[in-house]
Amino acid sequence: MSKIPLIIQREYFSRVKKKSFLLTTFLVPLFFIGMYVGVFYLTKKSFEDKHAIVHIVDEEGSVAALLKSNKNLTYTNSNVELQKQIEQLKNQEDNTNLLIIPKDFYETRQVELLSAGKPNITTQNEVKDHLKEIIRNVEYKRLGLDGENIKKINDSISIAAKELSEDGDAKESHTEVAMGIAMALSVLVYLSLFLYGAQVMRGIIEEKTSRIVEVVISSVKPFQLMMGKIIGIGLVGLTQFLLWLVLTTALTSAATTLIFEQQDIAAQAMAQNKGAMPAAGGLDFLNALQSVNFTELLLCFFAFFLGGYFLYSALFAAVGSAVDSETEATQFTMPITMPLLLTYILSFGVLVNDPNGSIATWLSFIPFTSPIAMLVRVPFGVPTWQIIVSLLLLVAGFLLTTWVAGRIYRTGILMYGKKASFKELIKWFNYKS
């Protein structure tokens, strides 16, 4: 066992010192910050540039007078002949439109909106809303209803969704925020387990094909080599996650403080919600984030990521020892990653919709699926005993798979030129030391 730390040290520093590790570690946070800045900038610009001019050709005769300009749209009545107006439209700037209202508008309820350039969806929707209001008012009159009084009816409903804690207290329940975090964790863990598990497998295949492993095996036991490699690459993954967390937090705070004013942020948050959100909408979102137990979330993330990584990396290591190339490894990696893939797919529907249902609960106890299933459930609130039981089962699963993988690894690592099969793997597993 004393040689395992040396192997861990070798695996860790040989990867951390690589240029690819440094580039990935520093470029990923910059990519997210760039995306964050870009979303705000483009959103702001799109709302600044969305003002449109709509020339109206009203063949019906009474609709144009009812269309009122606002800060986003300017309606102008056109007295030019229709065909000539269309010809002129080709040479005009984007966001210039021609609205053609036919004579039978109230019967067919169809209009044409010609645009210079690509038709703007926001402009189309706004014109449609204005026309719908005109038709609605006409229908009110026909039915003898007072449209103004109907508009005054307040039918908005506010639901204060709360959940009862174990001690009986009611607290705010922000389901949308929990769903967003759950799906983000699902994607992150799924990709990470594949990324770092594949690194373990690839490293073993490279050493096996270059025959370096024969030299190493003369000094250490195969099991020590496998465990050293798994733990070393796992520590590389943890280092990368911690650096991403620190750099992303620091850069996001700096970008928020230096580039955007708080008023801009609140305005963009409201703009992204089509202006329907009340003035306190941005604050509600921040309050929702503050209600999330990030300490529990981070602890669970690192615990389940490590457990899942060790479990799957042991299997990837066994596969790497059994084959001579990555192409041959495909037939073995597909079966062992199917539970993970199934949970990942279910996390976007079944798990987030019913995080405390029987399917989600059972999946969070099975070691092969719990790294994703439990992390998807945690933002919704999971009893502590379930988290502990799930972790214990995951550790037990890791020990079992490591034992199985180690028995395959000790034989497979020294096998060359022989195409492995599942039957062959069972035979290697049954070999006595």
Automatic annotation (TrEMBL):
SUPFAM superfamilies: Periplasmic binding protein-like II. It is found in: Membrane. This is ABC transporter permease. Residues 72-99 form a coiled coil. The chain crosses the membrane at residues 21-42, 177-200, 297-320, 332-352, 359-378, 384-409. It comes from Sphingobacterium bambusae. Keywords: Coiled coil, Membrane, Transmembrane, Transmembrane helix. It is a multi-pass membrane protein. It comes from the Bacteria. Residues 19-405 form the ABC-2 type transporter transmembrane domain. Its main location: membrane. InterPro entries: ABC2_TM (IPR013525).
